[in-house]
Design goal:
The complex is a heterodimer. By secondary structure, chain A is an alpha+beta fold. Chain A is built from five helices and ten strands; from the N terminus they run βαββαβαβαββββαβ. By secondary structure, chain B is α/β, with parallel strands linked by helices. Chain B has a domain of about 230 residues: Cobalamin-binding domain (Rossmann fold, 3-Layer(aba) Sandwich), CATH 3.40.50.280. Chain B has a six-stranded mixed sheet with strand order 2-1-3-4-5-6, with helices on both faces. The relative contact order of chain B is 0.11. The chains are: A alpha+beta, B alpha/beta. Chains A and B meet through helix 1 of A and helix 9 of B.
Chain lengths: ~250, ~650
């Protein structure tokens, strides 16, 4: 019986900090964990690293209110649970905030295995050098894409060109309205085995468009009845102590 | 005066490493307006990942932000892709802290740590929307100032920089700030800029090029004379007497993206009196001023707790020489707050087994590679350059490293040194080969990398009179070594581009006339010249030819004692006699001991400024020759722990 425990943490990445990379964010977390003095479990071997696993990578430049990570602690001793989320937020850069912390049941599948799709909100704007594309036109293109059965994209993978049909990976795509920057869309896109990216959806909507202000709003785990999130954001001021922690599985 | 962020952000999707431009570092000071304050923009004219860790810039950033009614922000040279975006969209150079236009600041202050960044300085000034030449600036343009090691020969940049700071910057920024505040309050009227510069020229350690008249006779420099009675004929460097009074940076900036030296850095002493004759840093930063060990430990524990780093580097020009380095290191490792997870690194390891003993204490886990700098291949050559490392010291160090689990050893060498023969050059291959043989006693697969750089004789050193080796000569030496190591499995040879050494020689050894060359290289697109993908020697040689200047004259010829050097009116405190004596001693391969532990030979750095070494122990630590060439303690045993010698206390 090990007394090691795994925590699942939900956090957001908003504002200027969105221009940092996934690897950058991993380093920010390592420093934050040390600053709040959590007893991290380290990997064995030549170069021990803290056992932190992130789910899906978030592209540089994208915002998110639904990022998750799992971290393994070496034990419970000395962990100050009250206000842990706030202390982590304070130790993280402006723009990265912890919205929930929970202890994982032993045997909970990793984020990588569990998450099946993500919800996105993004703006499509006219690309530089192209005439403006009005909301009505975007609506027509969205309808056409969603009524199509296939949409093939070609990308280079390890030197070879691979053609893939991304249409099945677009679970939903809706126009939400118009903002000064362009037309706002929401989409649910499959995350595994082959993730569809918002940029590919914009490409599928035809020429003259580019993505702006991309934000991940949810990650989903498919269950028998309904999809659910790896961890809900807890309301502010909710107590975070072991007995009060939400079960994540 | 508003944030340019809404105009900056749309560019970020189109550039590499956008995190270079967002600021957001932990430790950043970004509150409150610029308006109504004296504002400094501190600029490191190289890429963000190189510039951010610079300690000098971070020290001044904190000191200035602690000053009442003063605001300091930072920026770095935008990479070429970002510059293209900025120029296309007419976005000026901006600060990273509050993303304000550079021209909104009162002072643009550059850190100059390497000569090949000079064209980037011009580019940054131009991107700020300010005329690159000082004499074309308008009354309300920001003042352009520069500091850092390169300013010990400021002349190549004399046409572009309004005022230089020579030496330590901690104290003089206050005097500069006061004077600039008065100028700003006076409304920056026509002529007031010249008046200010004249006033600045009277501040000790400040050099204002426009206050000096330069005369030439053909290619020769004849004189550099002050235009005004109150301007000093020779500018003496500034030196802080006591490092303990300046425990900065207190809040080291923690970047959000990967940078070089991405760890906590604590400066444990400034200055070095080893006396290596090629080393400009060791000559211009004398005397040695140690930080008290207790303060070092306090800065380490505060810094680790605040930043969350798991690595601390104890920085200096030769960290193993710090009095009681072993107990200081042990105190850090044993600090329960570190949970055994903190690693300590000592840059610039001394070449001996003692040093490896200390290193083995502190790198318990990640033993990948150790780096030593014997600098030259033969004992004769090392006596010439006064790097008195014996072969036994090196083999002891290497033996110690390979026997204790390190798998790679890297050796730094210079080539193109004064009096260097082919035999001296080939000694580099010999040393590397012998190190592999020593290592094979302990491990099957042994890797020794010999990294060879072309020597650039720097101003204010005993080698300032020496004519730099030509490209064909350096290439000849590299070829010798390539042939000599070709069949040696285990020895990897790396070398620096000899062409870059020539450009560095032009920029570091030039006089005021070289400014036109720097400007032309910049105008023809030559930025980021220290990056091999952007470096172009043709730009430099064509610009030299265009302005009728000769690399032979500026770089390759030996200079004579009576010659007025371009930097003769700048003083690092070293007596001319001392430098010349060292040059003559070098030519007969005679060494000079370290004056920390042996009697003073009066180089001038202490006596001239009424200061002295600040060291906790005036006895040399034992173990090997300690780079003195003497057998202080040798033998097979690695002295991991040293008994502390009589401590005389801190001489403040």
């Amino acid at each position: 019986m090990t007394d090691r425990i795994r925590l699942r943490i939900r956090f957001s990445k908003l504002g200027k900090i969105r221009w940092t990379s996934h690897r950058d964010v991993a380093r920010m977390w390592e420093r934050a964990f040390r600053r709040v003095d959590l007893p991290l479990a380290y990997s064995e071997g030549f170069s021990p690293r803290p056992k932190v696993s992130f789910g899906l990578a978030l592209s540089t430049g994208h915002e998110s209110v639904a990022e998750f990570l799992d971290v393994e602690l070496s034990g419970w001793d000395g962990v100050e649970w009250d206000g842990l989320a706030d202390r982590l937020s304070a130790a993280l850069p402006v723009g990265i905030d912890v919205t929930a912390v929970a202890v994982l049941e032993p045997g909970t599948p990793s984020l990588q295995e569990a998450v099946t799709s993500c919800s996105w909100r993004f703006t499509v704007a006219s690309a530089e050098g192209y005439p403006p594309v009005e909301e009505a036109e975007v609506r027509r293109r969205v309808a056409a894409l969603m009524s199509a059965s296939r949409f093939e994209v070609t990308r280079s993978r390890k030197g070879t060109e691979v053609t893939e049909d991304i249409r099945p990976g677009i679970c939903s795509l809706e126009v939400q309205g118009c903002e000064p920057a362009g037309t706002v869309l929401t989409a649910e896109l499959v995350a595994a085995p082959r993730a569809v990216r918002p940029a590919e959806v914009v490409t599928a909507l035809g020429p003259g468009l580019e993505e702006r202000d991309v934000r991940r709003t949810h990650q989903w785990i498919q269950c028998q009845d309904a999809p659910r999130e790896p961890l809900h954001a807890t309301p502010e001021d909710a107590p975070v102590a072991p007995h009060a922690l939400e079960r994540a599985s | 005066m508003t944030s340019l962020w809404p105009r900056i952000e749309p560019m970020l999707a189109h550039v590499a490493k956008p995190a270079r431009y967002i600021g957001c570092e932990d430790g950043m000071v970004a509150d409150g307006p610029l308006e109504g304050r004296l504002s400094w923009l501190l600029i490191y004219p190289d890429a963000y990942e190189v510039g951010l860790p610079n300690q000098g810039l971070q020290i001044l950033y904190e000191i200035l932000n602690e000053r009442p009614h003063t605001r300091a922000e930072r920026t770095y040279a935008p990479w070429t892709d970002m510059e293209a975006q900025m120029r296309r969209r007419s976005v000026p150079l901006f600060s990273l802290d509050s993303h304000r236009a550079a021209c909104d600041f009162d002072v643009l202050a550059f850190n100059l740590s390497a000569e090949l960044v000079y064209t980037n300085l011009l580019n940054c000034v131009d991107l700020a929307g300010v005329a690159v030449r000082s004499d074309q600036r308008r009354p309300d343009d920001p003042l352009v100032v520069a500091g850092g090691h390169c300013t010990f020969n400021p002349e190549p940049l004399a046409d572009f920089v309004d005022a230089f700071v020579i030496g330590d910057g901690e104290e003089v920024v206050e005097e500069l700030s006061s004077a600039i505040e008065v100028w700003k309050a006076g409304g920056r009227t026509e002529g007031s800029r010249q008046r200010l510069l004249r006033d600045l020229s009277t501040i000790p350690g400040v050099y204002v090029p426009s206050c000096y008249e330069v005369a030439y006779d053909g290619p020769s420099l004849v004189s550099v004379t002050p235009r005004y009675p109150e301007t000093p004929a020779r500018v003496e460097k500034r030196t802080i007497a006591d490092l303990a009074a300046w425990p900065y940076p207190r809040h080291q900036l923690v970047p959000m993206t990967e940078v070089v030296h991405d760890r906590l850095n604590v400066e444990i002493f400034r200055g070095c009196t080893r006396g290596c004759r090629f080393c400009q840093a060791g000559m211009i930063t004398r005397p040695v001023r140690e930080r008290p060990a207790e303060q070092v430990l306090q800065m380490v524990s505060d810094g680790l707790a605040r930043t969350g780093y798991d690595e601390v580097s104890l920085t200096s020009l030769s960290s193993a020489d710090f009095s009681g380095i072993d107990s200081t290191v042990r105190s850090i490792i044993d600090d329960p707050a570190c949970r055994g997870q903190v690693s300590v690194s000592l840059p610039s390891l001394r070449v001996d087994a003692f040093t490896v003993g200390v290193a083995s204490q502190i790198q318990k886990v990640r033993r990948t590679g150790l780096t030593f700098a014997p600098e030259a291949g033969t004992w004769r050559m090392r006596q010439v350059i006064n790097k008195l490392v014996r072969e036994e010291d090196l083999y002891g160090a290497v033996e110690s490293a390979f026997s204790q689990g390190w798998r790679r050893v890297k050796l730094y060498f210079l080539t193109g040194l004064p009096t260097e023969t082919d035999e001296d050059t080939l000694g580099i291959a010999e040393l590397a080969r012998n190190c592999v043989a020593v290592g094979r006693h302990h491990q099957k697969s042994v890797s020794v990398t010999a990294s060879v750089g072309g020597f650039v004789p720097k101003p204010q050193t005993p080698f300032q009179w020496f004519g730099q080796a030509t490209i064909p000569d350096l290439q000849h030496r590299i070829n010798l070594l390539r042939d000599a190591t070709r069949r040696d499995r285990g020895v990897q040879l790396r070398w620096h581009d000899p062409k870059a050494s020539l450009a560095e020689g032009i920029a570091s050894r030039g006089d005021r006339r070289v400014g036109a060359v720097i400007e032309e290289v910049w105008r023809r697109g030559g930025v980021f010249q220290e990056w091999s993908e952007h470096f172009s020697l043709d730009l430099w040689t064509e610009a030299m030819a265009h302005h009728g200047l000769s690399a032979e004259w500026y770089v390759h010829r030996d200079r004579s004692r009576d010659e007025i050097l371009p930097w003769s009116h700048i003083s690092a405190g070293l007596h001319d006699d001392f430098l010349w004596q060292e040059w003559e001693d070098a030519l007969v391969a005679a060494g000079t001991p370290d004056c920390r532990w042996t009697p003073c030979y009066d180089c001038g750095a202490c006596t001239g400024y009424g200061i002295e070494h600040v060291v906790a122990s005036n006895v040399a630590p034992a173990g090997g020759s300690q780079g003195t060439g003497q057998d202080l303690r040798s033998g097979g045993e690695v002295p991991v722990f040293l008994r502390s010698k009589a401590v005389t206390g801190v001489q403040a």
